[in-house]
Design brief:
alpha/beta; D-Maltodextrin-Binding Protein, domain 2; 5-stranded mixed beta sheet; 24% strand
Length: 253
């Protein structure tokens, strides 16, 4: 019988430092690691197909039980680089936005910025496959992850959601963090944190093992992504969840 803890994570460039320790054998006798895109990991955690997920924070209110088990996250304190609204025209001229199917948190963040900060009213279009070729004219697209780093070289306009959130609130933003759907032993959590930290202590190795010509990964890992779930980041997370819940409640009225 397999008593290992099932851990789900995303195999994007921005997660490489956090999963590095597991991929080189850390906790191999205690953990089974599953790699998927963010919204799929969220579904797996909700359906109890995994015990821990590096999941979009937007699912927190939907979980029957949840625990933030780690000191680490995928976040930013300003520009994030890999979560952007891309367009061929300025913000005020955008008529339609194609929404990235791979991340609910980024979509909900975009909706909050549209309604409460930018105060624009474009048509929002759900997608289920790659749509980057359709970004043209007054049709913009929200793109996350590695594909966003590629798109930065193509589109005339880019609106970085981390940067826009910081201008709106003055706070960091947390896109995803390690959440469990059940209580876990303290010693396991301690080891889990140490395994996360091993990648952050070996950024040069992570960079060398993931060659990427389109963006300076050393800069990305140290100047764009914030991996530390400190008190300021937790405040930004709570403010986002409060805005999200308030918006959902208003929609239900």
């Amino acid at each position: 019988m397999n008593n290992k803890i099932r851990v789900g994570a995303v195999n994007y460039l921005n997660t490489k430092p956090l999963i590095y320790g597991f991929e080189i054998g850390g906790m191999k006798d205690e953990v089974d690691l599953f790699l998927e895109y963010p919204s799929k990991i969220a579904v797996m955690l909700k359906e109890d197909k995994i015990d821990i997920g590096l999941v979009p924070v937007v699912i927190i209110p939907e979980l029957k039980e949840h625990y933030l088990i780690s000191d680490y996250c995928i976040g930013c304190d300003g520009e994030v680089g890999s979560v952007c609204l891309f367009s061929e025209v300025p913000l005020v001229k955008i008529e339609r936005i194609l929404l990235d199917y791979q991340s609910r948190t980024s979509v909900d963040l975009l909706k909050i910025l549209i309604k409460q900060y930018w105060k624009i009213d474009p048509e929002l279009i759900t997608t289920s496959e790659d749509y980057r070729k359709n970004i043209s004219g007054t049709t913009a697209g929200l793109i996350i992850g590695d594909r966003a780093l590629e798109q930065r070289r193509i589109s005339n306009y880019k609106y970085d959601l981390g940067y826009e959130w910081k201008k709106f609130t003055g706070l960091p933003f947390v896109f995803a963090t390690w959440i469990s759907n059940k209580q876990l032993d303290y010693t396991f959590i301690e080891s889990f944190n140490k395994t996360n930290l091993s990648g952050l202590k070996n950024i040069d190795k992570v960079v060398s093992e993931n060659p990427y010509a389109l963006f300076d990964l050393k800069s990305y890992y140290t100047s764009y992504i914030n991996y530390y779930l400190n008190e300021k980041a937790k405040k930004g997370l709570q403010d986002f969840l409060d805005l999200l819940i308030a918006d959902q409640n208003q929609y239900l009225k």
